[in-house]
Amino acid sequence: MTSPQQPPPPPPLLPLPRPNALREVIDLANMTFEKNVDIPLKDGQGLCRGNVYRPKGDGKWPVLLTYGPYGKDVPYASFHGASFSEIPDEQKSSLSAWETPHPDYWVAQGYVVVRVDERGIGSSVGFLDTMSDQTSSDFAEVIEWAADQSWSSGKVGLLGISYYGGSQWRVAARKPRGLACIIPWEGMTDYYRDRVRHGGILANNFVKFWWENQVGPMQYGTEEKRPRRFGPGVMGPPVGPECLEGSVPLSTRLALRRDQTIDNKENRYLDDPYHASRVYDLGAIEVPLLSVANLGGILLHLRGNVVGYMEAGTKNKWLYFISGRHDLPFYLPHFVKLQKSFLDAWLKGEDDAGWLKGPNVDVPAVSVLVRKGNPGFNTTEAEATFKFRSEKEWPIARTRYVKHYLQGDKKMKTSAPTEGGKDFELQALGKGAPVNFEVKFEEETEINGHPTANLVYSVPKRADGSAPKDIDVFLTLRHLDTNGREIYYTGTAGDPVPLCKGWLRASMRKIDESSPRHKHYLPHRNYESKDVLPVEPDTKYDLLVELWPTQVVVEKGSKIVLEVNTGDSQGCGIFLHNEPTDRSETDFDGTNILHVGPGHDSWLCLPIV
């Protein structure tokens, strides 16, 4: 167990530049572009700079605002050229930026687009601490600043993907003046559970890639900025030093930031000050929201979008499921139409759909995506074969939670086993093959909601008499067609992914059933240091694992497979859990035994609609 991390020493502050030192006003044919507008911060310890794209002439317009770490002046074409080439032409220009609304389009629709570098990034001066309490506090100040400007109607909406979606939940809970609505598009809500500690297990690999290739190179004062790595040792084209008064020595830059790759490794529990400072109350959100969840985001955003919808305090909330690659759907015409309809209603009072009446009047609260068949993956044509269906709530009220018991012959049945018990040995740390259990469906069946699995585990002593101190459980749900071939879906990066995954560290198995957040289909764990439970050799433990939400129609004769593993497997892509200090040989190496059959409550519970 690690002790809570001490607060970092006060950083060496950089002198603030003179007001609007870099501000430019650029008169374009279709808009007025104010570049590097100063946005003062109340604590006096930093300065944000933003780009303002607004309709020409005098007037007041609603504002679409993004606040993030990727460099507001980095062209989308430079950040990820291949992705940029695939988005629709009406959603791209030299002003486009990764994961944010396209200024040319939205200004033409009567909006002001404001894109801001967060403190410590790009042209914004100060201490860099991504996804922190500071980030949310600064973001709230930026929203209030935007609401007060002469070109603003006083109403601010938030629209963006991923980081630009996840930050919306946190700032909305602060209730900044002027904030009128949010559309968190593939935006996690829970820093610990959704991003860095899946079931208590450190999810390190993506954060390392993200930090080293997308955030660190954008820090204020970096002499040569390069937006991201596109292959081993291959960086994107230089994009800096743009909008900087000058370079800052590396030693100073290191002192002026918190590094997520270090912080997440050193802080294991939610009561560590580092993680505790990132906790907020979704119930405090009062503004209307449209949460857009991608079923293919099985290792980062999906859970957060669903839980965010469930727990947000506002009565005006909608949940919309989509599929497809992480970067493309946001810009497709039918989804842009959805965004505009929602924003026009809450920011302009122009309601073509009935949003202002609230959920389930004209606009159903939930739009589920029905994934049926095997159209392939990573093409818009494949995604278009899936159909949307309206529902009134989430989870769907008519859901039946059906337990499928694991059998000694590697089958799953809806009746508890009375014979054929068996112990399955798995080599820890992903060193051996997984164990797969399957169930064949005799009629077409829709799975839609939150699966769980309870597995009975133990660990024997090692040959030298020592014993593992912990168990890491990695679960995957797979879909096989009538010929036994796996059906793949589109993952975050266009990669083939299974239905969903789930994880649990046995020492973090304690469930808080007294929490209002606890549900039988969504077990709630506090993940605090006081919750750590020992794992003793030759002792059986029931491990109840939360799998992330999913949807699929299983056709007659097709199968669902539960893959039980001790490490990452196919479908993880870059989202790996392979930090050796978190999953050490001393604590984990050895044999894990999975017990199934009579007397052992090992099952997979599927939400059947």
Describe the main β-sheet briefly: 11 strands, mixed
Low-confidence stretches: none
* Estimated radius of gyration: 25 Å
Query: Number of helix segments?
Result: 14
The SS-based structural class is alpha+beta
CATH topology of the largest domain: Rossmann fold
User: How many distinct domains?
Assistant: 2
Query: What helical percentage do the residues reach?
Result: 10-25%
Q: How many β strands by DSSP?
A: 30
CATH superfamily of the largest domain: Alpha/Beta hydrolase fold, catalytic domain
CATH classification class of the largest domain: Alpha Beta
Provide the β-strand percentage band.
25-35%
Please tell me what the overall shape is: globular
Terminus-to-terminus distance: 42 Å
How are the strands of the biggest sheet laid out side by side? 1-2-3-5-4-6-7-12-13-14-15
Overall pLDDT metric: 94
Q: In the CATH hierarchy, what is the architecture of the largest domain at level 2? A: 3-Layer(aba) Sandwich
Structure in a nutshell:
This protein is of the alpha+beta class and 609 residues long. The protein folds into two domains: 24-357, Rossmann fold (3-Layer(aba) Sandwich), CATH 3.40.50; 400-608, Sandwich (Jelly Rolls), CATH 2.60.120.260.
